[in-house]
Specification:
- The chain is an alpha+beta fold.
- The chain has one domain (about 5-110): Alpha-Beta Plaits (2-Layer Sandwich), CATH 3.30.70.260.
- The chain is built from two helices and five strands.
- A hairpin with a 7-residue loop joins strand 2 and strand 3.
- The protein is globular and about 35 Å long.
Length: about 120
């Protein structure tokens, strides 16, 4: 059995609670990723959190957590699904960390060049 990874897709939010659109986005992102990961036999969506960033309480984020069997395929699938479904793929960050280990997430993809920081 191959090693598993946490994969998190992060969207910036303007407020702690998020707008009606943010809640709609959360539902659609989770639904589309769940279906796509299952179809590819690659993993599953494990939940989300929404609100203040733990590293900077003045910033807010929506984090959708997935568990994937293959890190690179999981990242590619998430980017493709969000782009093809038009789910604000131009605002996302994707980060991963080995499953079952207390490490920090490593940024693997950012919506624009030069973005290097990632935190929950």
């Amino acid at each position: 059995m191959s090693e598993q990874f946490w994969l998190v897709v992060q969207y910036p939010l303007k407020s702690e609670k998020g707008s009606q659109r943010d809640h709609w986005l959360r539902e659609k992102v989770m639904e589309y990723l769940e279906i796509s990961l299952a179809d590819a036999d690659l993993g599953y969506v494990d939940g989300f959190d929404m609100g203040k960033s733990t590293s900077d309480p003045k910033k807010y984020a929506l984090n959708v957590f997935c568990v994937v069997k293959e890190e690179e395929r999981g990242i590619s699938l998430a980017k493709r699904v969000l782009r093809e479904s038009r789910l604000d793929h131009t605002r996302i960050k994707i980060a991963t960390m080995p499953y079952g280990k207390e490490e920090t997430y490593t940024l693997k993809y950012a919506y624009k060049k030069g973005v290097t920081d990632f935190s929950l």
